[in-house]
Amino acid sequence: MRGIKTLRRTFVKSALVLAAGMATMSAPLVSAEEWAEKEELKFGFIKLTDMAPLAVAYEKGYFEEEGLYVTLEAQANWKVLLDRVIDGQLDGAHMLAGQPLGATIGFGTQAHIITAFSMDLNGNGITVSNDIWSQMKEHIPHEDGKPVHPIKADALKPVVEKYKADGKPFNMGMVFPVSTHNYELRYWLAAGGIHPGYYAPHKGDTSGQIDADALLSVTPPPQMPATMEAGTIYGYCVGEPWNQQAVFKGIGVPVITDYEIWKNNPEKVFGVSKQWADKYPITHKKVVKAMIRAAAWLDADNNANRPEAVKILSKSQYVGADYDVIANSMTGTFEYEKGDKREVPDFNVFFRYNATYPYYSDAIWYLTQMRRWGQISEEKSDDWFMETAKKVYRPDIYASAAKELIKEGKLDAKDFPDFATETGFKPAQKGFIDNIVYDGSKPNEYLKKFEIGLKGAEKI
Amino acid sequence: MTTALSNIAWISPFVSIAKGEDVSGNIQTIIKTIGLPLAGLLVFLMIWQAAASNINTSLGQFPGPGDVVTQTKGLLTEHFTEREKADAFYERQEKRNAARVKQDPTYVPKIRDYTGKPTYIDQIGTSLVTVLSGFILASLIAIPFGIVIGLSANLYSAFNPVIQIFKPVSPLAWLPIVTMVVSALYVSDDPMVPKSFVTSMITVMLCCLWPTVINTAVGVASIPKDLVNVSQVLRLSYMEHVRKIVLPSSIPMVFTGLRLSLGIAWMVLIAAEMLAQNPGLGKFVWDEFQNGSSDSLGRIMVAVITIGLIGFLLDRVMLMIQRKVSWDKSAATR
């Protein structure tokens, strides 16, 4: 024991000398360096592959290089995670894009949460049980013996109608009322003419099952496969690796990825409370810097680092699923039916296409879906959508972090949007499964394009 | 040395053989004390292996004894790599602190604890500390309380219903209440011990209080009349009566209670850790279940066996202490 201690001491001593040398050499360069106000931080996450930027920033030492000592802690479910960010037990967390928005407008728990970093694009899938799949399959066009993708919910409609006629509820799982998954599953179902149900918070109804053909309910992501195996739900929408897990376990078949529902849709964000961000602005900026570097690493050289990232994620303290299960989607492929593995190179996007930049138009899309399904029970003006997005999404903090990285030579200016001219609105987006075009600057007009869903002054 | 060795049941026959005493008789004793348990264990392992290869779950085959050995090794390796990472972490931190002091002389360097994950061994440590804290806290309350109500039949009748009602309450029922109360009352910016630790400890305490209370009370109430008379003749004060007469004569019963309590404490702790996501073996089991990797079941099995072994060891330790302090050696053999 003493041997180890002396060894450690000599090591530290030589390290000190070394460090002193380095410090004098680089002193003029970093003389104006700021220090984080809070150095010991605890961030929460849910066991999903898109928590990767956090794990990578930790394992690759990006947090430490910013002088931050971060502990990452898996959380039981999205509600617990949000509550712990609100009451300060967590400094920040991997959040569903809808969570900061929902919390800020007061759907569910009311609290002002902001985000300056978008964690990834795409990454979800919809899976149905083997039994439902065999019933759906006869309604899906085939080519060369394989089903033609993307599969629309039209193929599921006859199945749901049969259940309805038999008086049996058709239950499906999603991960949280304001989750991307809820909106994507609803979008897909509604595009195929299946009504996913309305919310009516002003009447105290937050089950989201009013007028529903398919009844959606909440299940935490890691428990999805087990819940479907138990027969409680017939299908679910969730992030990876829980769709691929169903294939590996042979209990279900993923029918569509969210990339096919909406090409390059924003998925998770890194959320902190407004209060925390105001109290520790430098810390917040440094956190964003470390995470931008992690995201860039994840997408560098055409996903060359992904296998290493998968190795990190498969550790039990992060996602903990088997390497092969995580690798399937993280390395750009997706397995639908067992053996039917297809290339989806953009299934998980962490950095390219400016994936990390918090676009106002992304925020507004989520707000439009909250309005569409009644979570926002009254008509809101286009200005309201704009103001709310600005309250929650903070590209200004992102820009200051990115500019520092460019100055330090860690990343290139061409990796980022042009901050001088960027408005925060993506040009009108196509690429939705129902071919409806989304323009973030006209939310009310967008809502009018949907056949199923609340619009204008409609109220439940 | 030999006398100390010969006190341990399964070693004494070897010692006797070495001394050349009653060889055939001692061999029989050896077969009984070592051979039979070993045979039982072997049969169990065989049944386990056979059953395991016939159970297929969606996470792969049910782990047999071989998988458990592999996983145990894996967990140990993980522990040592994590320790190396921790050392590297402290080194980097020293460097960074030194560099910072260079630039900003007013900065007082601070060494922060390792931020990596707790290893399996760490989890065992956390669980043991938690269970012992809860158990000691419970004993500190239960023994005095048991003595007081044991000494007075009236007090006993008064408190008995309360005890009987709370005794069968499961930890899972207490947990939400304890969690909320601890969150409300235990507020500090830089807490000495984490909230989760306090929650687990109090839950354990509430559940393992009762066997000690009841056994102590019964032990105290059943002191031989003669001893009580002696105490009265000598006109011992209340405290002296407790110290000289009550405690010594009720110790076997108190320890029976304590042993039961510790057993319950250990079981409650694992459940509390699982449900409340408090660090420890219970959380380890839950996390592995959530991970759903092909190693998960094997790792959970390792935890199951560890929990059993530790529970067994805790019981043996209590038994040893009981033998040491008890005058009635025959009361504590099993």
Name some characteristics of this structure.
heterodimer, A: 460 residues, alpha/beta, D-Maltodextrin-Binding Protein, domain 2, 2 domains, five-stranded mixed sheet, 19 helices, 17% strand, globular, disordered N terminus, B: 334 residues, mainly alpha, MetI-like fold, 12 helices, 78% helix, 1% strand
What is the gist of this entry?
The complex is a heterodimer of chains A (460) and B (334). With 460 residues, chain A is an alpha/beta fold.
Structure description:
The complex is a heterodimer of chains A (460) and B (334). Chain A has two domains: 40-121 and 266-448, Periplasmic binding protein-like II (D-Maltodextrin-Binding Protein, domain 2, 3-Layer(aba) Sandwich), CATH 3.40.190; 124-261, D-Maltodextrin-Binding Protein, domain 2 (3-Layer(aba) Sandwich), CATH 3.40.190. Chain A contains 19 helices and 18 strands. Chain A has helices at 2-30, 52-59, 62-65, 78-86, 98-105, 130-137, 157-165, 180-191, 224-229, 242-249, 258-261, 274-279, 281-303, 306-313, 323-330, 360-372, 382-392, 395-407, 443-448; strands at 40-45, 69-74, 92-96, 113-118, 121-122, 124-129, 142-143, 146-147, 170-174, 198-200, 205-210, 214-218, 235-239, 252-257, 268-273, 333-335, 341-343, 348-349. Chain B has 334 residues and is mainly α. In chain B, 78% of the residues lie in helices and 1% in strands. Chain B has helices at residues 2-6, 12-19, 23-52, 65-103, 120-151, 153-166, 171-185, 195-221, 225-233, 238-276, 281-291, 296-325; strands at 56-57, 60-61. Chain B has twelve helices and two strands. Chain B has a two-stranded antiparallel sheet with strand order 1-2. In chain B, strand 1 and strand 2 (60-61) form a beta hairpin. The radius of gyration of chain B is 26 Å and the shape is globular. Chain B has a domain at 118-331: Orthogonal Bundle (MetI-like fold), CATH 1.10.3720. Chain A binds chain B through residues 8, 11-12, 15-16, 18-20, 22-24, 27, 30-31, 33, 35, 39-40, 47, 58, 61, 64, 67, 69-71, 74, 76, 222-223, 225-226, 229, 245, 249-251, 314, 316-317, 319-322, 325, and chain B through 58-59, 87, 90-96, 98-100, 102-104, 107, 112, 115, 117, 277, 287-288, 290-296, 299.
